[in-house]
Request: fold
Amino acid sequence: MLNKKYINRELSWLQFNSRVLQEAEDETVPLIERLRFLGIFSNNLDEFFKVRYATVKRIDLAGKAGKSALGGIKASKLLEKITQIVIRQQSESLKILEDIQTRLRNHNINIIKETEVSESQEEFIKEFFLAKVSPALVTIILNDLPEIPSLKDSAAYLAVKMVMKEDVPKHGITQLIDRSVKERKYVLIEIPRSIERFVVLPEEDGKQYIMLLDDLIRYNLHRIFNIFEYESITAHMIKITRDAELDIDSDLSKSFIEKISSSVKDRIKGDPVRFVYDMNIDEDTLSYLMNKMGIDSTDSIIPGGRYHNRRDYMNFPSLGASELYYEVRDPLPIPGLILQASLLSGIAAKDFLLYTPYQTFAYTVKFLREAALDPKVKTIKITIYRLAKISHIASSLINAVKNGKKVTVQIELRARFDEVANIRYAEQMQQEGVNLIFGVPGLKVHCKACVIEREEEGRTRRYGFLSTGNFNESTSRVYTDYTLFTADPEILKEVNKVFDFFETNYKVNKYKHLLVSPHYTRTALMGLIQREIDAAKKGIDAEIKLKLNSLSDYKMIDKLYQASSAGVKIKLIVRGICCLIPGVKGMSENIEAISIVDKFLEHPRLYIFENSGNPKVYISSADWMTRNLDQRVEISCPIYDEDIKKEILETFEISWKDNVKARIFDTEQTNSRRIDDKPPLRSQFALYDYYLKKIETITE
Reply:
């Protein structure tokens, strides 16, 4: 049977997605932003089934669950429980979508179906279909095929049923008979991803109209199937989700890029793990499809609404008045670090902290662009996990090579769902002469670090940056992350050691300053927690503050329980999975935990230990998950600059005091909002004001 801790981790993830759904339901959130939260909810579910659900299904099919009595439930029962939860969440999301669409109509934004098209809209829809949609359609008639061709993972399909006009001959006699025995043709139409999902129709009488591509295709079914004589035609949406695990080829004759490329291609043939269908689909159509596709009882079968792939709502077109959106506030500069001047000169004098998206990611790009042009810079080393679709980071590195720099890039080809993009960038950089490293056998490289070497007065000086998030211009606008720019020789010497480990990974280096996974992070964190325990036992103030994406490693959780029992005060801000239960007498009564879900995605990893009045502060790429501590290369970097340390402590406290978008973790897992008698404080808005005030103070 599956261990209860494993079960709690999977269900905790679904609890996180419930918090996202709460934002979509929240009437104080602008309407189009609510739609986009529905898109995030849907996208999260897709990834959950591709990865987490698929893993449980593999366990079930392998027959591993049920052989050892570890406590808990069988894998098959967990699959059923997950499906039940998701069906409930999907039902809730459909009600929210209907409510949002109703409210949008009050703002003269109308999302219309194929049955609501006006005469004046007909010509536009016809021309749009013939010019853009029809040439892109893949239409598969199923009746004469022995089996359904492999459907694309997470692609949306219209399942079409045509009831033909001709009656079926019976004993050589053609007669009028029950319609149920008339010939049926079943067809699948793939919704093309090359066309925007939302088609903006011409405005009429001051009202705006949008039609989903699905409905635009439905409206034109007669044009697609005009060669058939049918008496009725219906179309309902279906979607299949496949296991996204990469099975890496062991062929030694292939390069790593070839192996990953092959594995990504094989992913399209991964086992199905979820089948979603329009709950209004005809029973005979549903039965036909499921039999033809071989959908079985271990797959999650979800009755859904009219539209799937609601992740597309993340890119809902920008229409209407400003009150339908969050206020756009331009990212701020870092006080004292001037973009128009030399960043390296500024960093040579002191460390600087960047906190995106409150401050501009342009500093990261400028750092690399300057390094690419500076004749004194000789080498650049950087880790890459995820890049933007159009990456100025990549172009800066290529520019550096063209200017004679030695550029080394550790690129993680196994970054889930970014494999194809990273392979493309790897091939491009390799062609330009970048020295590529493809990780460490058995370990993903998840750390975010860069170090450059510059010749100054006959010696080599290092500059660099370490971050909690990816070097990605796109996500930097919506993910909150810390980046430390530094010229500290001790820290950067150790960052350089990490790059040495990438190339000679049989040799494990020692570190005095950095906490590096998989060799030292767990032990170091255990020691830091123990120090707080020892202080509490001596009557000295002891406190631990953590900001994480996920907390699911039970050895670390047990150590936090031990600290709580010793009197250590613990504050946790955990965006996603939190397997720790706070507030339990005798175990965790000194632990408080919240989650913040708001306009931006909370992404930093931050560790703060009171350390008898001299706080130890780390920014990190590592969550407190087993994979981050034991199965990945991660870097946690200490903050030594007192001004930056003060800034991080203050920004943590702003987040901690959130009583608008904070949810509390409790034993009931209700995702209740934090309610107190203090003035409303929405931390993400307050943090922008915090940095704005810093600039205003300097300019006064």
Summary: Confidence is low (pLDDT under 50) at residues 65-70, 170-177, 247-253, 263-268.
